[in-house]
Amino acid sequence: MHDLLIIGGGPGGCAAALRAAKGGLSVALFEARQVGGTCLNRGCIPTKALLHGAGPGCDWSALAAEKETVVAALRSGMEKQLKAAKVEVVPAQAVITGPHTVRTSDGVPWEGTSLLVAVGSYPALLPLPGMDLPGVVTSDGLLEDIRPRDRLLIIGGGVIGVELAWVWASAGCRVTIVEALDRLIANLDRELSQSLTMELKRLGVTVYTGASVAEIVPGPAVRFTHKETEQVLAADTVLVAAGRRPATANLFACEAPVLTHGFLKVDQLFRTSIPSIYAIGDAIGGAMLAHKAEAEGEAVADLLLGMVPRRGISPIPSCVYTQPELAQVGLTLDEARAQGIPAVSGKCVLGGNGRTLIEGGKRGFVKLVFHRDSHTLLGAQLCCYRASDLISELTLAVTLGLTAEHLLRPVRPHPTFAEALTQAVEAGLEALEKQA
What pTM did the predictor assign? Predict the structure, then answer.
């Protein structure tokens, strides 16, 4: 009998396994595919590797090989960490048969004091005719078939859709995005969405928002309606990037804990309605991001070790790895006002930032949202080079409840992108003084 059985070897499951095992618990980790889960093998890492190398005239074979090299190195590193921590990795599918038991696909039973569901998610399929036609793929399929394409049509304008659009468009492919909502990456700040849309169009991407897809027809081609006009667009490949779904189907061979639309319902300690069964990451909803799952996995391990979790689980920053990058954490100004929170913002446009001009001078800005009365930083939205790195300082500030005055105190080096943070804080203080 083990202390902890973990179903799913993605970022959350691996983080929980390592923390729990290093704390002295006996841990078995069940993963039917590769250790590292979607993020490492079929998502974040492959996509970012392609974004790094794609461009006009790129060697697609070399790019695919480099992607595989990066993925293999990281996966090997994780496997070595798990082995060193004495985590028993079981390369099999597992189903839960009771509050303390699971059964693997070969029929072997396992028993654990606690169970942790970290099964992640899979690409969502749309209820459309033609989803099974040749040339229609999800992100999993596209990332397994790295090659040049003349025409790529993407159904879905979320982070997955826009990042993969950037890869192929930057290499000269004619890319079209068809999005049902009124703007791309609708979960982020409206100005971030507008800036991204402008950059994609400069790259040659055609964007249809507020569009309703009716079907995919042989070719393949997509029939959709945009501004009351029906269109049919053909492509070499149709990528369906319509979000992701929790991989909780067929997970329970017994009475399941409470689920809502496939997501497991958990309390503040990540316990399901069956107290011995915990769940984290994509399986419980919220932001479907690797770093969220990782933080939650470590929190559960600490709780099982009888400790107060060392890592926080919010706020969760979001990043889009286009050029320039986008990043966001906390509340936008619109969200704060919608919640009745008195807020003002400070903004720095990076047109005069020395490092930005050195790097090529793409459009960019840093926008900070402050509480009008306490001056506490409520959120940040960045569209600039290295936004995915800069957001960490601002995530720390939101987490600790730092004020504009606190953020103005550090001397940031010159010439750097980080100087824009100082200027955005100064703009925020000016706005706060006007509101006083």
Answer: 0.94
